[in-house]
Write a structure and sequence with these properties.
Blueprint (H helix, E strand, L loop, with lengths): L1 H7 L2 E8 L7 H14 L4 E5 L7 H4 L8 E3 L2 E3 L1 E3 L5 E5 L15 H14 L5 E7 L6 H10 L4 E6 L5
Parallel strand pairs: 1-7, 1-8, 2-6, 2-7
Antiparallel strand pairs: 3-4, 5-6
Helix pairs in contact: 4-5
Keywords: 4Fe-4S, ATP-binding, Iron, Iron-sulfur, Metal-binding, Nucleotide-binding
InterPro entries: Mrp-like_CS, Mrp/NBP35_ATP-bd, P-loop_NTPase, YlxH/NBP35
Protein name: NUBP2 factor
Length: 161
């Protein structure tokens, strides 16, 4: 649709951060990568599709922020004094940041599609997508929703064992 083309039209590279299991540091790596790219002068966004464990808002100390609407969808939360990192997370949509999200696949998939199509990212050099652990519905939905766009690639986070 036109809205999808519009909201991701200004994003030059999309990077998925994945792992086969939880607790390996995907969210930490996504956050550190975003900060490093920002420090290199890049415009960066983070899309946190880890619906059951949205930790990036807390890592960036913006867990009390709210998401607002504009004509083209949701306005992401801008992080830091320079507002150089745009962040969208389900953590901003929960009543309390520690609330558990217990949803069946179709509802999760619908939210992921909405995150891809309805967030007004503006112009970004990189959009980093922090995914949940494993290889589930959410990953398939995310990749399918992003398929029309130029994906830079994926980073697979593993542990030594």
């Amino acid at each position: 649709t036109l809205a999808e083309r519009t909201n991701l039209a200004g994003v030059r590279h999309i990077l998925l951060v994945l792992s086969g299991k939880g607790g390996v540091g995907k969210s930490t790596l996504s956050t550190e990568l975003a900060l490093a790219l920002r420090n290199a002068g890049k415009r960066v966004g983070i899309l946190d599709v880890d619906l059951c464990g949205p930790s990036i808002p807390r890592m960036l100390r913006v867990q009390d922020s709210a998401v607002h609407q504009c004509d083209s969808g949701w306005v992401p939360v801008f992080v830091g004094q320079d507002k150089a990192i745009a962040l969208m997370s389900i953590g901003f949509l929960l009543e309390r940041p520690d609330d558990a999200v217990v949803w069946r696949g179709p509802k999760k998939n619908a939210l992921i599609k909405q995150f891809v199509s309805d967030v007004a990212w503006g112009d970004l050099d990189f959009l980093i997508v922090d995914t949940p652990p494993g290889t589930s519905d959410e990953h398939i939905s995310t990749v399918e929703a992003l398929r029309p766009y130029q994906l830079l690639g994926a980073i697979l986070v593993t542990t030594p064992q």
